[in-house]
Amino acid sequence: MSSLLIVAVVLLVAEGCKKSNPTFELSTLVAGDVNLNAATAPSNVAPDATIVAEFNLDVDAATATSATITLVRVYDTTNFNIGITVSGKKITIVPDQNLGNGSEFKLSFLTGIKATDGQMLTAFDRSFTTIGQFVPSGVIAYWNFENNANDQVGSYSPDASDVIDVTYEASHNTAAGLAATFNGTTTLIEVPNGDVLMNTDKFTLSFWVKTNSADKTTGDFTMGLAGWFGFQFEIGNDYSWCKLAAQYELTDGTTASQDLWFPANGDVSYPGWTYCRDLTNSGGLAAVIKDKWANVVCTFDGSTRIGTMYINGQIMKQQNFNLYPADNPIKNGIALKYAGNDAPGNHLAFGFIQGRNNRIITDGWADYADPANNHFKGQLDDIRFFHKALSAYEVQKMYESENQ
């Protein structure tokens, strides 16, 4: 009888222990107010959302680290740095940068996370997609021209006096809203501290443009920062070519200029020109960019020394500084670098080759005050700068997303 009583007591104690020590598991997982633990992966997560995981037991903070919790962007397997804090049953996860719009992510809780009672969490992962049209992370300045010329993400908004004769009209589709319209003679937007936008070894400029050739015989200085002493995007007066002219830092600390020039004729005769799309039999560049909306993206990667131009998601021109002739200084180009005048000479001008004041190019043809010069006539929208060289996949997916 005593033995039976002892066994019964042991069983009761064991059963009590089971009830007081439930299996360590996830209770809720949210990003902002979006449930990440639903049966269907959500597609409306804010790109700056804080992620909070709550468990049924207190979490051992020492085990919740970047080695046991990861956030990976699916399309390129980029592992995002995340801040991780633990408070009782909750783990709070904060990415160190904006996740960008329209991108799929996988959040993984790996083997090694423990409760304070020593129980190990069974590994699991959850997928989600950030809200909106696809835009890669890393945007440092963005103008969407929704009835204003303000930078929507950074600190590059112009003063009211630096927005001249701009009107806002319908953009390339309904989702894009409005676009800035330039009259070809006086319209100008001057953005302060443009040098900061370009002083980087990894660079991307992306924008939508629609030219207006009516009653216009000159070319289009679409935008410029001290011309080629900073950078400029220009479209030829016959619409047969376009280019990004820019100043580059060399390995010896000096600078030199070079054009990412697209003649649309397949010419790769110059050493270092590794690709040039031939549009001759399809109407040339004019068929792509004259009086119609086009998406233009220019990139430079200082680690590879490769510059690329895309139009409507397709590679149009690519050049590799490593392959330039030995006597060409640009062979040693490693980054974009502003070499113009100090403020206000460092104002980036939308609609002309440079700002009105402290001009580094003093020739008459580069004077904003002359309405007969190559003032841009047409529309601009969704101008973005990145301090990263977007991949071909990112460029194409962004174009497809914005072109819907």
Structural commentary:
The termini are far apart. The strands form 4 sheets. Strands 10, 12, 13, 15, 20, 21, 22, 23 and 26 form a 9-stranded antiparallel β-sheet that branches. Strands 11, 14, 16, 17, 18, 19, 24 and 25 form an 8-stranded antiparallel β-sheet that branches. This protein has 404 residues and is mainly β. It has helices at 2-20, 194-198, 286-289, 392-402; strands at 26-31, 34-35, 51-55, 69-73, 78-80, 82-87, 90-95, 104-109, 124-129, 139-143, 163-164, 167-170, 178-183, 188-191, 202-211, 220-225, 231-235, 242-250, 255-262, 273-276, 294-301, 306-311, 314-320, 333-336, 348-350, 377-386.
Tags for this entry?
404 residues, mainly beta, Immunoglobulin-like, Jelly Rolls, 2 domains, nine-stranded antiparallel beta sheet, eight-stranded antiparallel beta sheet, elongated
Element pattern in H and E: HEEEEEEEEEEEEEEHEEEEEEHEEEEEEH
Question: What radius of gyration results from the CA coordinates?
Answer: 28 Å
CATH architecture of the largest domain: Sandwich
Strand content: 35-45%
Distance between the amino and carboxyl termini: 81 Å
From the structure provided, what is the oligomeric state, counting identical versus distinct chains?
Answer: single chain
Poorly predicted parts: 4-18
Tally of DSSP β-strands = 26
Give the count of structural domains.
2
Please describe the biggest sheet, giving its number of strands, its sense, and whether it closes into a barrel: 9 strands, antiparallel
Question: Helix coverage percent of residues?
Answer: under 10%
Structural class: mainly beta
